[in-house]
Design brief:
Strand order of the largest sheet: 3-12-15-14-13-16
Helix content: 25-40%
Oligomer: single chain
Radius of gyration: 40 Å
Largest sheet: 6 strands, antiparallel, barrel
CATH topology of the domain at 38-62 and 312-381: conserved putative lor/sdh protein from methanococcus maripaludis s2 fold
Strand content: 25-35%
Structural class: alpha+beta
Order of helices and strands: HHEEEEEEEHHHEEEEEEEEEEEEEEEEH
Distance between the termini: 66 Å
Shape: elongated
CATH class of the domain at 38-62 and 312-381: Mainly Beta
């Protein structure tokens, strides 16, 4: 092949490539124009029909986003406690009922406990030993002053007394841990023969008895058997379920409203969990709610609305403007320059009161149908 022929072939190839590029560019521009254009032809209404159409002019708005979700009521674990058996033995009497208000230190149940009897006996022995060794130490001090004994003997007597007094203090502390009442403890300290015959389980805090798994005759194991649950119900926690994109809008300190049975409660977000629940895919936001009348109960399902603290700026349209197409995608009807109305797909964001945020699909100045949109959709689908 000659050089002239090769040159001509190269020129033809370049020309074909340029033509293909222009064709592709034209197609791309056409595709972009098709994407920007309405998804369906416009709808033209008569003057009479237009009188029944309500329009809304799109413009930027400042708003506070509200995250609405479900929640479950729980006890305020900072004001609720499980009462474990402080000693072992069978329950002889239960002194309180479920739902009863109790005060700190109030007797809840009586237990015939060998542990308790052993602790009382140990205290009496320790108290007697401490008293005797102290008396001996004091006598040895007097003898030492009169050179009746050596210094070493007096020091040993003082050490014995100090050890015995420490044992008495430990035995006394064991009784306090077993909820011995102040009066019974005084009787024991003063050496009176009258002593408590049975152990008493007492309330560690004031509140309401919300659980009582024991019954008379139940054999308790010291430190392991749960006997009661007491909770202060004047304040509860609501565990709100927050999903995906809403997480960025939920922060500690934000105000929240809790709806239960037609009653509204005011609360505040105290904590947002650091992990996702694998069963639900949600993150728990803990809302502290005042519950003075006790209407909120544990495990009650409620609706929660968490109000974003920082205002946002964006486009809002009334909920009535948004419809769904055959693919369940949101769209609105936008007024056209020729007087008709055309569908335009939009991105539907969070609900703000009676409006929806539209992050994409509308521009300031667009006019959308907010009253009569379903009628226009019916006409177009005919």
């Amino acid at each position: 092949m000659t050089n002239d022929s090769s040159t001509r072939l190269a020129q033809v190839a370049l020309a074909l490539a340029a033509a293909a590029a222009l064709l592709l560019a034209g197609c791309s521009a056409k595709d972009r124009h098709a994407e920007a254009a309405p998804a369906s032809p416009g709808v033209t209404l008569t003057a009479a029909q237009r009188r029944h159409i309500g329009l809304y002019t799109v413009q930027p708005s400042t708003f506070q986003r509200t995250v609405e979700t479900d929640g479950v009521v729980d006890f305020d674990n900072d004001q609720a406690t499980s009462v474990l058996a402080p000693f072992g033995g069978p329950v002889t009497r239960i002194l309180v009922a479920l739902g009863q208000q109790v005060s700190k230190g109030q007797a809840l149940a009586v237990v015939d406990s060998p542990d308790f009897s052993a602790a009382v006996t140990a205290y009496r022995k320790a108290a007697a030993t401490a008293a005797n060794t102290r008396r001996v130490a004091d006598l040895d001090k007097d003898l030492l002053r009169h050179q009746g004994i050596a210094q070493r003997e007096a020091d040993q007597a003082e050490t014995d007394a100090a050890n015995a007094e420490a044992d008495r203090a430990a035995a006394r502390q064991a009784l306090i841990a077993m909820n011995v009442g102040a009066g019974a403890l005084r009787d024991l300290q003063q050496g009176r023969t009258a002593a408590p015959a049975s152990g008493v389980i007492r309330a560690p805090i004031s509140g309401v008895v919300v659980d009582r798994p024991i019954t008379p005759g139940r054999l308790l194991q010291a430190g392991t058997t749960p006997c009661f649950t007491i909770a202060n119900l004047s304040r509860v926690w609501v565990m709100a379920q927050v999903f995906g994109a809403d997480l960025a809008s939920v922060q500690v300190g934000e105000a929240a409203r809790v709806q239960a049975g037609g009653v509204s409660f005011v609360g505040r977000v105290e904590n947002v969990a650091a992990q996702v629940d694998p069963a639900t895919g949600a993150v728990a936001a803990r809302v502290a709610v005042d519950n003075p009348a006790g209407l909120l109960k544990k495990q009650m399902y409620v609706r929660v609305a968490i109000e974003e603290r920082q205002p946002s700026v964006g486009i809002l349209v009334p909920a009535s403007a948004i419809l769904r197409d055959d693919e369940n995608l949101p769209f609105v009807y936008v007024a056209q320059p020729d007087g008709g109305f055309a569908r335009r797909r939009v991105a539907q964001g969070a609900r703000v009161g009676g409006d929806y945020q539209i992050p994409d699909g509308l521009r300031p100045g667009d006019r959308v149908i907010i009253d009569g949109a379903i009628f226009v959709q019916f006409m177009q689908d005919q």
